[in-house]
Design brief:
The chain has 223 residues and is an alpha+beta fold. It has 6 helices and 9 strands, in the order αββββαββαααββαβ.
């Protein structure tokens, strides 16, 4: 079969304004729970897109480690390409794709470094093998061979023995504060449902309409 003929209809569900909650992070967590309940592989996997100051983009898959009203959290090596680019250009885009549920979520926002206390608390909870791997890899830098990497891993094991493994200075995390969150639900005949939350500034979100006015504007997009 030609890849041009590889297609299917989307009939899993539909989405309306009335079906969505007022806050996009609360709605996201509801969809994430659905993905976990459906026993999808790696339901917390997301693509993180970054760009250099001159506009050259890059992306990679990482695992989401938290989502609340403040934003979306992930951890990484601070010497990695993503961290280097975020240091000069904090704008980023996250993409979650749960194709078995015919759903996608796109988040546009700014990534700010987490405090060292928050990073240290999370690092202590990681499996020991993951802690060792964090010390082993100088992420995104060239390496001679797979054997070199495995030897470095063994060297870290010997370095720390059976003791606690401290947080590396070069390892940290980010919180992406969303500005735009788009929810996509596949629709029959390619008439997909796309609903986008856009965060309004303080003046626009209050505007004399009362303290309970939502800071989010919700609108439907053409598929």
């Amino acid at each position: 079969m030609s890849i041009q003929d590889n297609r299917r209809e989307y009939r899993y569900a539909s989405m309306t304004r009335a079906s969505l909650l007022a806050d996009p992070t609360t709605q996201f967590n509801l969809w994430l729970k659905d993905a976990i309940a459906a026993d999808l592989p790696d339901p917390t996997a997301m693509s993180v897109a970054t760009a250099t100051l001159d506009g050259r983009p890059s992306q990679r898959m990482v695992l989401l480690k938290g989502c609340d009203a403040g934003g979306f959290i992930f951890y990484t090596n601070l010497g990695s390409r993503k961290a280097t680019e975020l240091a000069s250009n904090a704008h980023t885009s996250l993409h979650f794709c749960w194709l078995a549920l015919e759903r996608q979520v796109i988040v546009d926002g700014c990534a700010m470094p987490l405090s060292r206390d928050v990073v240290a608390e999370y690092f202590r909870k990681r499996p020991r093998a993951s802690q060792i791997a964090a010390w082993t890899s100088q992420q995104s830098t060239p390496i001679a061979s797979r054997q070199t990497l495995e030897l470095q891993y063994q060297a870290v094991i010997e370095r720390f023995g059976g003791g606690d493994i401290p947080l590396p200075d070069f390892w940290g995390g980010y919180r992406v504060t969303p500005r735009i969150v788009e929810f996509w639900q596949g629709g029959e005949h390619r008439l997909h449902d796309r609903l986008r939350y856009s965060r309004q500034d303080d003046e626009a979100s209050t505007g004399g309409k009362g303290e309970n006015q939502s800071p989010w504007q919700l609108e439907r997009l053409s598929p």
